[in-house]
Amino acid sequence: MKDSVVLLLLFFGSLLCSPTNQARLTVSPSSSQFFEYDFVSLSCEEDDSSAGWTLRRNTTTQQMTQCGVKWGRYTGSSCEIRFIDPLDSGVYWCESREGPISNMVNLTVTGGSVILQSPVLPVMEGDDVTLLCETKTTPSNLPAAFYKDGSLIRKQPTGHMTIQHVSRSDEGLYKCDISGHGESPSSWITVTAQHTPKKQPREHRLYTRGSTSPAAALQTTPRHTHQTHKINIYALLHSLFVFVILHSVLNDEQWSTANLVYYYTNFGCKIRISI
């Protein structure tokens, strides 16, 4: 009986503890702005594979359309746009059949002669960020002026500017201007908080007798991130499930001594059961 209980808990617990794979949308070349007729490749990447993900976009003329339908074509695991057009400007993301989506990327395509090369993905607090003001036909080392939220922040003699140790105050809408060539479109730069890795996994312990409810038995740390919030929900679901299973299959003596400890990490959970 005891072995059956343990196997049931491990089997169903593993389903609840299985981490949800999150795809990453990557863009090559890594930029949020492109000249008309540039070549762009987009990929949905996971730690283990890219299968099962569909690349979609919203533009001014198309909503929720996937690669290969009226735009782009798949080459292996990548979606290629060989001659990108201003009408390709929009929001791109990866989506699975089960529902989860990746990070969203905003791409801007211009028919003008100046673009701002800036990070296409959010940057981490404390990192250095280099912005490059580039022209279509001439060397990209011309003097350029850089703007944030419409205000001039710096003029650089060589067309590039580095923001050292970025902070949340550096988040905003950036553009650049090269005299005699024109102004780039604007691109938003997002700065994310730096997360300190936890040295020890958080512990959630379920007591069958000492607690009035499984929810009350959860010992969790304060929520700091969206990811931590999801882990807390999994812990609650797991504890409720274990509470029901134990209550239904154990006799009074086993019920009085049953104890389960499980550790949640970013990669799933480890379970220790004693009955």
From TrEMBL:
A family per Pfam: Ig_2
UniProt signal peptide: 1-23
Keyword NADP: no
Keywords recorded for this protein, A-Z: Disulfide bond, Signal
A GO cellular component annotation in the UniProt record: external side of plasma membrane
Molecular functions per Gene Ontology: transmembrane signaling receptor activity
Entries under PANTHER family matching the protein: FC RECEPTOR-LIKE PROTEIN 4, IMMUNOGLOBULIN FC RECEPTOR
GO BP annotations listed: cell surface receptor signaling pathway; immune response
Keyword Disulfide bond attributed: yes
Domain annotation Ig-like: ranges: 100-192
Protein's UniProt name: Ig-like domain-containing protein
Cited InterPro entries: Ig-like_dom, Ig-like_dom_sf, Ig-like_fold, Ig_Fc_receptor, Ig_sub
Superkingdom as given in the UniProt entry: Eukaryota
